[in-house]
## 1
Amino acid sequence: MMNNAQLATASLDDIVFDGRNRTYGAYVLRHLYQRHVTRALGIALALLALLVGGQALARLIRGPEVVVPFAPTGIGNPEVKPLIIDPIVLPPPPVAAVQSKTMAVNSTKFDSIKIVHNNVITEEIPEQEALASTHVAAVTIKGGIDEGALKELESTVGPNTITGETVSDKSYISVEQMPQLPGGGGTEAIVAAIQKAARFPAQALANGVEGKVFASFVVNAQGEVTDLKIVKGLGSGLDEETLRAISKLPRFIPGRQNGRAVSVQYTVPISFRMDK
């Protein structure tokens, strides 16, 4: 074992292998390790310096490099020119041909001469003087327009304002201003007037028939009640009594659509109840 004086001056290898066998190789390797590392580092630095110095020496010997811009010319490398594409021009849309209106012109029929029997009736052949003063055609037209009277059409400008919507003659269900009785009141007043004029028929009383009769009628543009019909009836004289009561209605104030008097159709229910 080492004493204190020997430990102060001993290396790490001497301390590790103190009292151990130093002859089998491990001690020698550890003792020479630092020398080998220093030698390897020196060799690596020498190679690096040689590589860098060799490149610098070669660049110095060659001199400065001259960079020549690349310009492709010749047959193998022709000069590339930009491709110019012509703009696409669409043809204008075809214009529809306007077909002129043909007009009937006074003309005289002139056929080729045919050989026929004496008893066969043929059309009268016009004289040459008549053909000279008329328009020759395949048929004879009378009452048309003289060819000399035809002239170019003159363009005219009509009114550019709209007077109003066209109102047809049909019957309407609903209009801007509905028909009214002279006293007004709307549909309720019309049904009340029909109910007041209706009488319970004796046949319906005898048969015990009661309920509602649905009838339709039209108030025309003159305010008259027309086209009376039963939409859904009960029979036993109730349908006929309903139509009679509707026919007793007075003249209406007619309905109006776009400022014009029009016909309006009504469908009303008329009730018939027996007193219990």
## 2
Amino acid sequence: MSYKWIKRLILWIPTITIGLWEYARHTVLLPYISMNLGNVLAAVIIFIITITILRHLFARLEDVQEKLNEERSLKAALQEREKLAQELHDGISQSLFMLSVKLDQLEMAKDEEDRIEKVDKLREKVRYVYDDVRQAISNLRTDPEPSDMPWSQSLLMMMEEFKHDSGIELHLDWQLSEDPLTAKEKIELFACLREALVNVQKHAQASDVWITGVSTADGFHCVVKDNGRGFTSDPFQVKGRFGLQMMKDRAASMGWVLDLTREEKYTIVNIRKGRKDVI
């Protein structure tokens, strides 16, 4: 029996019982039972109903409430695990990947001067990873503090770092105003775009990537397009591609539409808020 039905029965049973008793009392029993005795019997009937039926229903209600509380606790724990997974992926995992890129570049150093330069950059990246880990731990303990840097500037810096670290030519056409975006939308859109670029660097073997962002009448439309090798099957079903699934889950949680398509020689990620036909 559901939680709602138990509550309804607890409310209905006494009401219906008293209604039936009063009807029988005034239509059949009135010549035999006085008003005072009828009132006493009404209280006795309610007491008996409470002891026999309502007591059982209240016990069932407590059991259902306990199960609901357990489900809420489990859901909260799963949400915390999901938050931890996102923190690890967005910060530590991607930073470690960039460290591996720096190590590859160090191995390809042309001479001693080039090697020293790359070692310095690697050391700088290690410090960045260290700060990133500390920030991730802090974010898990408390709410993350807002950055003093404007969101659009943070976005441009992230794209510049991608271009510098990957060597992939980046073509940017960004006309999306940050003013209509909520703080939550800025965080999630930033994470989705960063994940799209990381995937290009990891898997696409592309030479160029194009990023566009425009405001629409009821939202926005962002596109990340690359000329890499693409994919032959559904990339969201590939085992071990946690970043893509997280990106899809982020978009879904915000009510956005995210799709990944292959058109001619280009792989295209679309992130859209609002109706497709509204410009």
## 3
Amino acid sequence: MLYGNPSAFDSVHTLIDHRSVVNAPGIQLCMYETFERCEQVPFRTDELMFCAMVEGKKVMHHQSLQQARDFTPGQSFVIAADEQVHIDFPLATLARPTRCLTLEVDAERIANVAEQMSLSAQCSYHEQQPATLQLTHSTTTEAIYQRLAGAFTENKSDRALLIELATTELIVRLLREQDHHALLRCALHDPQATALHQVLSHIEQHIAAPLDVDTLARLACMSRSKFFSEFRRHLGMSPHAYILKRRLEHAGLMLERSKAVTETCFACGFNSISHFSRSFKQYYGQAPSTYIAQNNKREK
């Protein structure tokens, strides 16, 4: 659906991602136009961004996507703050430019709306926060995007207010119609948390191996001090304490499956039976052998 021709209002300075801008408090509304075929055009977000396809076709590339995604009218992409995507424009020409409307919104605004709706994002820290979401418009959300696009032809003093109202309605509709948990997780997406998620995955995959904090910091692309600070901020404990906790939790599961104490000790990354037994008793309140015996009684 054609929302208008913003190039009639802003003179074109580039054939790739020419931008027309309208601002409101905490919101930036843009229309991007591309007039020639091109591939792998980088695009970075500063705040959470809703991208609504207007005319033509894009192909979106991002590390969170297993394969490139076609992006066509009637659809929108939600991109978390501080993320970079790469975009192909397979159909763009001077006669039929590819057009996309973007709405950059402070994540706090979405959190406030969600709070008023009594919604929250339910996920554990181990569940990676999505950096991108692809949505299909309902009739209602499509109409809201059309109203937002109409702001490019509005010259009234209340234009900013109209944009704010339409943006709030869009957020309400999306939270109601889409998976609000995924949408809120994307809105609250933290790049530092994503880096730490890679560290947590590495720990889980190498629970039996020696785990060096300097190696984990490099994996997170952080200095040692920054890594300790971010890890404690997100996980509530030091890396060493977290690794010990996960090893003991793995050990508990193995003992519940009737694995031997010695086998469990070394399979979970401990170097000695005595250290394992002391740590296990401190965490579970009983020795490994007692834990096995009690579990066997429960199963009988």
